[in-house]
Specification:
The chain is of the alpha+beta class. The protein is built from nine helices and 18 strands. The N and C termini lie far apart (83 Å). This is Zinc finger protein 723-like.
Amino acid sequence: MRVHTGVKQFTCDQCGKSFSQSSHLKDHINIHTGEKPYKCSHCDKRFSRSGNLKTHERIHTGEKPHTCDQCGKSFTIKGQLSAHMRVHTGEKPYTCDQCGTSFTQAGHLKNHMKIHTREKLNTCDQCGNMFLNASALKQHMNVHTKEKPHSCHLCGKSFLCLQSLKEHQKLHTAVREYMCFECEKTFTSAKCLKLHLRIHTGEKPYKCSHCDKRFNQSATLKKHERLHTGEKPYPCTACGKCFNNSSALHRHTKNIHSK
């Protein structure tokens, strides 16, 4: 039985990298020689390392052995699980040295840096907004065209972007993978969890421009400011009376017109 001492006694004479096992060195040398002895039994792809083949074959088998102990979501590789766990912990280890904005994944930081370097930015010819890639610009253009190409097959509701549709469909499937560690309440999206956490932290980032009141949600602020502006955007279709929020309109319709 081999004792794991941590000593890396097998060294690659091509690059000097060391390994604790001869089999690991053997796989590593394939990188230099270009040899790919490990072939997928489901398709024609080949790999230089047995571990890479094993990970690839999970695409075919659907195996996801790495499971989050917070929400039960599973992943094919350990790295995906590690990145996912930051959703629950709130950890953002990748920080921009230009503006201090932090990210959960290195790839997100890399995309963000293009804002500072102006590298390959895609500009909207309607409003001038800039995007990091062409797909983001294409999705943004739906705002101007009013197109909602992503429809829910269960209720028919349509959305501007695919991610909004995915979040919506969780309402039908009852998937609630984001949990509050304070009260264990669960949510369908990170955004909903973030809004909820303000109940516990007391954070109220939205301040009324007419008085000193503050709110934890932008929608609540908007509703409040109508008290100052007198705006009443919700008209009753039966009698024409207007209300400053949808709840007041609903109560009016129920109490006056449904009798």
